[in-house]
Specification:
Strand 2, helix 4 and strand 3 form a beta-alpha-beta unit. With 233 residues, this protein is of the alpha/beta class. The chain has an 8-stranded mixed sheet, sandwiched between helices. The chain is 32% helix and 21% strand. The chain contains 9 helices and 8 strands. It is globular and about 40 Å long. The longest helix has 14 residues. The protein has one domain: 3-Layer(aba) Sandwich (Rossmann fold), CATH 3.40.50.150.
Length: 233
């Protein structure tokens, strides 16, 4: 492992808004902040939005800059990538940003029922040979329903037409889930200039555009499918 990566891992331990938990600490166990992110981390009751597979946190940071009245958490397993997002948020004094280093498979250990308002999934691995590992597969959507509020929105941006088509069919075939927007090419000139779907671009998105790839976008609602805390039902 390179010295620069080791340095970043050490610096990650100093960031107050970067939370890291080992597999054993959260496997079939609740993280201490589950259900308490708004109160204990952000100190407010503003909506909470997640970016899954956030990488360097480019989308998380961009959305947080645009919407100061919303709390954002970027989630990724790569500590060296999260270092960039955590460091930038500290340098800019962004109080509505946090990051979690964990596997998406363990996400239910971090969030309580109806704690999260929306999810962004930006350029995930399309997993062409492993359908159940796709972050928009039924396997993962079921996980998200355990912590999303009713009628939460899920956003997908990807350069993979196959993942776009797959996700659209999953949503259309899921009773109660509502497809709100389906765009096979977001740069077709039909969007408003300030639309965050086109104005916020990740490092990988810029590369895909240079390669001439179409960037697709899906937005869908969970409808009434979100799980509700039994104590509040």
């Amino acid at each position: 492992m390179g010295k620069d990566k080791l340095r970043r891992f050490e610096e990650n331990k100093t960031f107050p808004n970067l939370f890291q938990a080992s597999y054993d600490e959260v496997f079939q166990k609740d993280h201490p902040l589950k259900g308490l992110w708004k109160q204990k981390v952000f100190g407010n009751e503003n909506p909470l939005v997640l970016e899954l597979g956030c990488g360097k946190g480019e989308y998380t940071l961009a959305l947080a800059r645009r919407n100061r009245e919303v709390n954002y958490i970027g989630i990724d397993i790569k500590g060296a990538r999260l270092w960039r997002g955590a460091k930038t948020s500290q340098q800019e004094g962004l109080k509505n940003v946090a990051f979690i280093r964990t596997r998406i498979e363990l996400i239910e250990s971090f969030f309580a029922p109806a704690e999260v308002n929306a999810v962004w999934i930006t350029f995930p691995d399309p997993q062409p040979r492993k359908e159940n590992k796709r972050l928009t597969s039924a396997r993962f959507l079921e996980r998200y329903l355990n912590f999303l509020v009713p009628h939460a929105q899920i956003h997908l941006k990807t350069d993979s037409r196959s993942l776009y088509d797959f996700t659209r069919e999953v949503v259309r075939g899921w009773p109660g889930m509502i497809l709100l927007e389906s765009d096979p090419d977001i740069y077709n000139g039909k969007r408003m200039p300030d639309d965050p779907v086109i104005t916020v671009r990740t490092f990988y998105e810029k590369q895909f555009l240079e390669q001439g790839k179409a960037i697709t976008y899906l937005k869908f609602s969970t409808g009434n499918l979100s799980r509700v805390n039994p104590e509040e039902a």
